[in-house]
Design a protein that fits this description.
The complex is a heterodimer of chains A (330) and B (447). Chain A is mostly helical and 330 residues long. Chain A has helices at residues 4-32, 39-49, 53-70, 72-81, 83-105, 109-137, 144-172, 175-206, 208-214, 219-223, 225-246, 254-274, 285-288, 292-319; strands at 277-279, 283-284. Chain B is globular. The chains are: A mainly alpha (330), B mainly alpha (447).
């Protein structure tokens, strides 16, 4: 049991991070799309994420909480090494979260200011999450090339979130916004394709550990399922948005599902690259794991609480299911 | 190293001090909202619904401030105090995880339904959602105060290798100071929310034409405060006795008691002189210190000298304690007088409305002062007797800490100003004001 505890918690942490990236990903993406929309469209876009963003961000706290509870050694190393990108991300998240409430209550130039902060905060938070990811993959190596890589990942993640946000808007809105969102999704997809390709090629180049895991025949052949499936999902997204644009289909959920699949597949690839390290080449999950007494205590809580948590989250999404009405606080 | 320690502490203290303002308000405000909704359901009186809709906006705004600053804190545990996680992560981590699992998701998810779902779910489900949010905020206080209290008065832990682990979770959670601290903090929240409601309602009565809802919430706020403040005085005294038992050095600092004494006087005011270990310009009440702390005229109270060198800095603890008690006393007087003055539906005079407006954030001042007493009073320990603060600080350079500190200060300043602007706006005007001459005038002015 004790050897398995770190594995269980790694899976839980991974699930929390994936849930965060997908869920907050779509609302950060909607935030970044704000400047591309008119005033009325902005209101509808914000309404579509209003009931969810608080809970979405909680997944980030859960991910950090598990890192802290299950891998305390890694928590200090990772957050210490990522100090400045973390601060930048937090400042972005703060302005954005508060702007969300403020812009509803403000008017005139105040409202414009909060709209701008909502956009800027979403962008800064997304970009630096990508930078954190880039730094993390390369084991926080110093050097210009590694930082450049991190900035590329930052840009790619922004593209990914824009894709999530626009497919969410296709699902949740109607009329003009939806039509615009279809276009945004196709742009976002191009960005994501570029980003995923770059990161997939660059990661084995900058890390020997990752290279050895992927280029090891005949295992490589099996592993090619992941990129192949990712490409298939990309094609599916392109195709389904094309159909929606021409009016050939009315299934507004497909693009979002395809975007979620792309994120999940990329995440699995990343998880495979890193396992069993929690800090690449330095700390495995067993090195960094907390004492089993604490882990067992948390696991009891997870087993009891998680079904309720998933249950009421699903309930909340059902309450606000269907297309968004333009008014908050109705 | 010392610079980095000071900066890390300043930054964390600033963040935690800024963060605590908002939960202090939302924990109890959540219960007020449940009460408003409940009254509406029972009486069918639309005014209660209007009241609810007004205050739920204040709640949402305050909650968002709490969420974003709270996320920052969850990261700062690692960025500023990696040693904390290395040594006591096996205890702190699980408690924080339980807070996220049982409280954060509950409140955040049902907040969505509470804020935006009124027309999408039945009134019963909506009330339950509001209840879930209130329960969530209170549960979050439960877990974080369990951890904080464990750091003050650790129990149930054993050493294993280089780290501390829990031998008995029940003892860890229900450590000696936890029940006192939890009740003290929940009451602080109740009083803070009461004065905020009374103060903003008073502001509204002064600035909006007529609003029966505001007169009603004003009364609700001051009556609740008038009930809770005396309870808080009693609980605070009990908490103090608990601290005397478990953290006597903190009490010595609070009272600026440099030497162990029998028949200890109560120092009402003084300028503590840390260098020479004595008080200047002190005004004292003979025997009162012993009487309060030991409930006996000639009880012995241990002074700073008995605990050196592990003693907290005296000056901030001494003054913060006096600010907290001073605020408590004035809140007691204001709430009792206002309750008496508005008895049987009498309208409060304008000067009282101004006074209550001035007291809107009195709870924040008292709460912050209380936290300064308890947190600085714990120094030099991070976890009393287990881990020193200086052994937990990270290796982030002073330059990076300084730069990020500047960033945080500017961010918090901007957020706080915006918060006040919007709050004043919400209190002073708004869409659901009873139509009166002044409102149409203002509308013309705005157009």
């Amino acid at each position: 049991m004790n050897e398995w505890l770190p594995v269980i918690f790694m899976v839980l942490m991974g699930a929390a991070v994936l849930a965060y990236v997908i869920l907050d990903g779509y609302d950060l993406g909607v935030g970044m799309l704000m400047p591309a929309a008119s005033h009325e469209e902005q209101s509808i876009m914000v309404s579509s994420i209003g009931p969810f963003w608080d809970a979405n961000e909680t997944w980030l706290v859960l991910g950090i909480g598990i890192l802290l509870a299950a891998f305390p050694q890694a928590h200090g190393v990772v957050l210490g090494a990522l100090y400045l990108p973390v601060v930048a991300m937090l400042v972005g998240l703060m302005f954005r979260g508060v702007a969300f409430e403020m812009r509803i209550k403000a008017s005139g130039w105040h409202r414009e200011l909060w709209n701008w902060l909502f956009w800027a905060g979403s962008f800064v938070a997304s970009f630096f999450q990508g930078v954190m990811l880039g730094r993390y993959i390369t084991g926080f190596e110093a050097g210009l090339g590694y930082w450049l890589f991190a900035f590329v990942v930052g840009g790619a993640l922004c593209g990914g979130y824009v894709l999530m946000g626009s497919t969410w808007l296709i699902l949740k809105t109607e009329g003009e916004v939806r039509a615009k969102a279809i276009g945004w999704a196709r742009w976002g997809l191009l960005w994501v394709a570029l980003g995923v390709a770059l990161v997939s090629l660059a990661t084995p180049m900058v890390s020997e550990t990752v290279r050895d895991k992927w280029f090891d025949f005949p295992r490589t052949l099996w592993l090619m399922i992941l990129p192949a499936a990712t490409i298939a999902c990309g094609w599916w997204l392109w195709h389904s948005t094309g159909q929606l644009r021409s009016g050939g289909s009315s299934d507004d959920g497909k693009p979002f599902l395809a975007a979620v699949s792309i994120f999940t597949l990329s995440f699995l690839g990343l998880a495979y690259s890193l396992f069993p390290y929690v800090v690449i080449d330095r700390l495995t999950i067993w090195d960094a794991a907390a004492h089993p007494s604490g882990l067992r205590f948390v696991l009891v809580g997870v087993v009891i609480v998680l079904p309720f948590l998933v249950g009421y989250t699903v309930y909340a999404y059902r309450v606000f299911g269907g297309k968004t009405s333009g008014k908050l606080y109705d | 190293m010392e610079d980095a320690l000071l900066l890390a502490r300043t930054q964390f203290g600033l963040n935690i001090g800024f963060h605590i303002l908002f939960p202090t308000l939302t924990i109890a405000l959540g219960w007020f909202l449940v009460a408003f909704l409940w009254r509406y359901r029972r009486t069918g009186d639309e005014a209660w619904l209007t009241t609810y809709k007004r205050w739920v906006k204040v709640f949402a705004l305050t909650f968002a401030m709490g969420v974003v600053t709270g996320i920052t804190m969850s990261f700062q545990f690692g960025t500023n105090w990696p040693g904390y996680m290395n040594h006591v992560g096996a205890i702190a981590g699980p408690l924080l995880s339980y807070e996220v699992l049982t409280a954060f998701f509950l409140e955040a998810t049902f907040l969505g339904i509470m804020l935006f779902g009124m027309n999408r779910v039945s009134p019963g489900v909506h009330l339950v959602s509001a209840l879930a949010v209130a329960v969530g905020t209170t549960l979050s206080a439960f877990w974080i105060l369990a951890l904080n209290s464990w750091m003050q008065t650790p129990a149930g832990h054993v050493m294993e290798g280089r780290q501390w682990i829990a031998a008995d979770w029940w003892s860890v959670i229900f450590n000696p100071s936890f029940p006192y601290r939890l009740v003290h903090m929940l009451l602080a929240s109740g009083i803070t929310a009461s004065f905020a409601i009374a103060g903003l309602s008073a502001w509204r009565l002064l600035h909006a034409a007529s609003d029966s809802g505001a007169a009603r919430t004003l009364r609700a706020g001051i009556v609740t405060a008038a009930i809770l403040v005396p309870i808080q005085v009693f609980v605070g005294d009990q908490h103090g006795l608990n601290t005397l038992h478990h953290q006597p050095a903190k009490i010595a600092a609070m009272e600026a008691l440099w030497h162990t004494e029998r028949r200890m006087p109560l120092v009402l005011f003084a300028i503590p002189d840390e260098e020479n270990k004595r008080n200047n310009y002190s005004i004292e009440l003979p025997y009162a210190g012993s009487l309060i702390l030991t409930h006996s005229m000639d009880g012995e109270v241990k002074g700073i000298d008995a605990f050196a060198p592990d003693v907290p800095p005296v000056t901030p603890v001494f003054f913060a304690f006096r600010v907290m008690v001073g605020m408590g006393v004035s809140m007691l007087l204001v709430s009792w007088y206002a309750t008496w003055r508005t008895r049987r539906g009498q309208a409060a005079p304008r000067w009282l409305l101004w006074l209550l407006s001035a007291f809107t954030f009195s709870g924040w001042i008292a709460t912050l002062a209380g936290w300064i007493v308890t947190e600085i009073g714990r120094q030099p320990w991070l976890v009393t007797g287990v881990l020193r603060t200086r052994d937990a600080v990270g290796e982030v350079g002073a330059a990076a800490l300084g730069a990020s500190l500047t960033g945080y200060v500017l961010t918090y300043l901007a957020l706080l100003i915006a918060y006040f602007v919007v709050l004043t706006h919400l209190a002073g005007s708004g869409d659901d004001r009873a139509p009166g001459p002044s409102s149409s005038e203002k509308a013309k002015g705005a157009a």
